[in-house]
């Protein structure tokens, strides 16, 4: 499997590629893709890094697993391909943006438009077996993506990290909160959102205010 990720990340991550855990991980992923259907498509596994270069990172949104149903996952957390029905969590993300910023609910659930502006849409696990949620967890992806988070924290400044739900909140320990901003809330999934832990968090307007205060361009959500 070719490691198709943008050259800007390689100086920071090349040492990981030589680690024994990563070699085992790639071997496992290759076997999984050969023996059955997995998501996202193999050439989109590192899409988060290809649409958002290292230098461009302004906001990091951490998901857990790629979508595992046909045609959904495109390598960006919470994002789905053009024309695909919006999953419930994405529906609630768009509803919060609508109320927070007054932006009309979009037709497309493809979040490449965010990634291209410097939003790293990072799943903790980058691959999954079709229709089997969590099937590629604890194989090494989390070690790799934790390193990505730490690398951003150590080598950049004024990044906004959006940690939604209990799983993502655990990543706060990897982030230097003196250099960066960490915003937390409940997860946008219906279970959490309907209990009042998601709606009204205003993370999108807050992110833009923080970016402007540090001299950066706000995100067109």
UniProtKB/TrEMBL annotation:
Active site: 65 (proton acceptor)
Name of one Pfam family that matches: UDG
EC number(s) from the headed UniProt entry: 3.2.2.27
EC class name: hydrolase
Domain Uracil-DNA glycosylase-like stretches: 50-211
GO CC, alphabetical: cytoplasm
SUPFAM superfamilies: Uracil-DNA glycosylase-like
Alphabetical list of InterPro entries matching this protein: UDG_fam1, Ura-DNA_Glyclase_AS, Uracil-DNA_glycosylase-like, Uracil-DNA_glycosylase-like_sf
Biological process according to GO: base-excision repair, AP site formation via deaminated base removal
Cellular compartment(s): Cytoplasm
Keyword DNA repair set for record: yes
SMART domains: UDG, UreE_C
Keywords: Cytoplasm, DNA damage, DNA repair, Glycosidase, Hydrolase
Reaction catalysis annotation: Hydrolyzes single-stranded DNA or mismatched double-stranded DNA and polynucleotides, releasing free uracil
Keyword Cytoplasm: yes
GO molecular function: uracil DNA N-glycosylase activity
Tree of life domain: Bacteria
Family annotation (PANTHER family): URACIL-DNA GLYCOSYLASE
General function of this protein: Excises uracil residues from the DNA which can arise as a result of misincorporation of dUMP residues by DNA polymerase or due to deamination of cytosine.
Similarity remark: Belongs to the uracil-DNA glycosylase (UDG) superfamily. UNG family.
HAMAP family xrefs: UDG
Protein name: Uracil-DNA glycosylase
Originating organism: Aestuariibaculum marinum
Lineage, broadest ranks: Bacteria, Pseudomonadati, Bacteroidota, Flavobacteriia, Flavobacteriales
């Amino acid at each position: 499997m070719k490691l198709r990720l943008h050259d800007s990340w390689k100086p920071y991550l090349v040492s990981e590629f030589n680690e024994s855990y990563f070699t085992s991980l790639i071997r496992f992923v290759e076997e999984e893709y050969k023996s059955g259907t997995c998501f996202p498509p193999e050439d989109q596994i590192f899409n988060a890094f290809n649409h958002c270069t290292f230098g461009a990172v302004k906001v990091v949104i951490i998901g857990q697993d790629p979508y595992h149903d046909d045609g959904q996952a495109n390598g960006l957390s919470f994002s789905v391909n053009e024309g695909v029905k919006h999953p419930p969590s994405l529906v609630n993300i768009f509803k919060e943006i609508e109320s927070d910023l007054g932006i009309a609910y979009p037709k497309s659930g493809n979040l490449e438009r965010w990634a291209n502006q410097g939003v790293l849409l990072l799943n903790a696990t980058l691959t999954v077996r079709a229709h089997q949620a969590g099937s590629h967890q604890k194989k090494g992806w989390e070690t790799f993506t934790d390193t990505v988070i730490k690398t951003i924290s150590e080598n950049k400044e004024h990044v906004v990290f959006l940690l939604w739900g209990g799983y993502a909140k655990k990543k706060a320990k990897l982030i230097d909160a003196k250099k960066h901003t960490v915003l937390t809330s409940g997860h946008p999934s219906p279970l959490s959102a309907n209990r009042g832990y998601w709606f009204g968090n205003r993370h999108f307007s807050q992110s833009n205010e923080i970016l402007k205060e540090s001299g950066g361009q706000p995100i067109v959500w």
